[in-house]
Design a protein that fits this description.
Peptidase_M20A; about 20% strand; Alpha-Beta Plaits; metal ion binding; about 375 residues; hydrolase; Aminopeptidase; alpha/beta; 2 domains; Peptidase_M20_dimer; six-stranded mixed sheet; four-stranded antiparallel sheet
Length: about 375
């Protein structure tokens, strides 16, 4: 089965993060069983989803983990010109379908090479590490990584196959989503001296969140490897109030921090928390019941730092040809692998510019480049 044929099968599983991925996992397990490849499920708490670990080659330390997430983002509200869960070739050099580049293309390249890998006498193993719920906060991978580290010989390197146009990426920002709820005191809008508007206070805090980025630049806390050179803070949703003539008792906004590897998430939230405490104290002078509460919506996805990666980076560059390493602003599971001490880079077929878009696609050329990379990896890990 070619990489394109394998991609056709994978795209046909509508593994949107809100839904189960078990049909896709069962399909991969059947393929692994056909080739006598040992594998292990690592399930979610409710059993509706699963990660999958598989080892091709000897049960020894070393080797390379090929990591990819099986979930995809929704398609509702997007103007697709073809069925998003049917791989479509329009004759323009592209293969269309949800997940083609993000990131079932990478997984397809690996699975298509599996029948050849098992015929090789590998000196160290090739691991497949397929995760769930990456798109909603990299939720599934940590327990899979924990299982890998606790029960199996330690791998030497990890390649996370997010779409990078087959260029190695050595750094990305961390990411955390938060929700802040401002509670004031309602009153008639003609009596502004009696109430405390949660909306007005929230607006002041939202404005400060944006100002933090200017502070970071002024302090020189930047990294020119990123196209957004500083840690970014962004408010994406806000909701509050009940009527135009009522001072709002409550206002809630949801926001995110994407921090540079050189910044600590706690330092950035500390700045916002300090401003929130000052605003809260001001509110309570008029309304003792007032409050500002911030809660995380997900565990912080750790940043990937350009560190301890010389060997895996050299491996990628040897297999691909000399290509400059880069950094990306989006977050991935790579930081979670690195946090466990595993040298990690990101490298996969397709462009992140197509991810999450209607008519998502991967170019034939990119899929073929990914397939060549997998073939070359097997050759490199053969016993000399």
């Amino acid at each position: 089965m070619t990489a394109a044929e394998m991609l056709d099968r994978l795209v046909g599983f509508p593994t949107v993060s809100r839904d189960s991925n078990l049909e896709l996992i069962a399909f991969v397990e059947a393929l692994l069983d056909k080739h006598d490849v040992p594998h292990w499920r690592v399930e979610s708490d409710d059993g509706r989803k699963a990660n999958l670990l598989a080892r091709i080659g000897p049960d020894v330390a070393g080797g390379v983990v090929l990591s990819g997430h099986t979930d995809v983002v929704p398609v509702e509200g997007q103007p697709w010109s073809s069925d998003p869960f049917t791989l479509t070739d329009k004759g323009d050099g592209r293969l269309y379908g949800r997940g083609t580049c993000d990131m079932k293309g990478f997984i397809a390249c690996a699975l298509a090479e599996l029948p050849r890998w098992v015929t090789l006498e590998l000196e160290t193993p090739i691991w497949l590490a397929l995760s769930y719920d990456e798109e909603v906060g990299c939720i599934g991978a940590p327990r899979m990584i924990e299982r890998l580290m606790a029960e199996h010989p330690r791998p030497a390197a990890v390649i996370v196959g997010e779409p990078t146009l087959m260029h190695p990426v050595v750094a990305h920002k961390g990411a955390t989503n938060l929700r802040t709820t401002v509670t004031g005191r309602a009153s008639h809008s003609s009596q502004v001296n009696q109430g405390v508007s949660a909306i007005h206070v929230a607006a002041r805090l939202v404005t400060y969140i944006e100002e933090v980025m200017a502070e970071l630049r002024a302090e020189g806390r930047v990294d020119e490897a990123f196209n957004v050179v500083h840690s970014s803070l962004h408010v994406g949703r806000i909701q509050g109030g009940t009527a135009i003539n009522i001072m709002a008792r409550e206002c809630t906004f949801e926001w995110e921090i994407r921090h540079l590897p050189s910044d600590r998430f706690e330092d950035l939230t500390g700045r916002v928390d300090a401003r929130a405490e000052a605003l809260e104290a001001e509110m309570r002078r008029r309304a003792p019941e007032a409050s500002i509460v911030t809660e995380p919506l997900n565990q912080t996805v750790p940043a990937l730092a350009d560190d301890n990666n010389a060997e895996v980076l050299a491996l990628c560059q040897d297999l691909l040809g000399e290509r400059p390493a880069g950094a990306v602003a989006y977050a991935t599971e790579a930081g979670q692998f690195q946090r466990q001490g595993l040298p990690t880079v990101i490298c996969g077929p397709g462009s992140i510019g197509q991810a999450h878009q209607p008519d998502e696609y991967i170019e034939h050329e990119q899929l073929e480049a990914g397939a060549r990379f997998m073939a070359a990896l097997g050759e490199r890990l053969q016993r000399k």
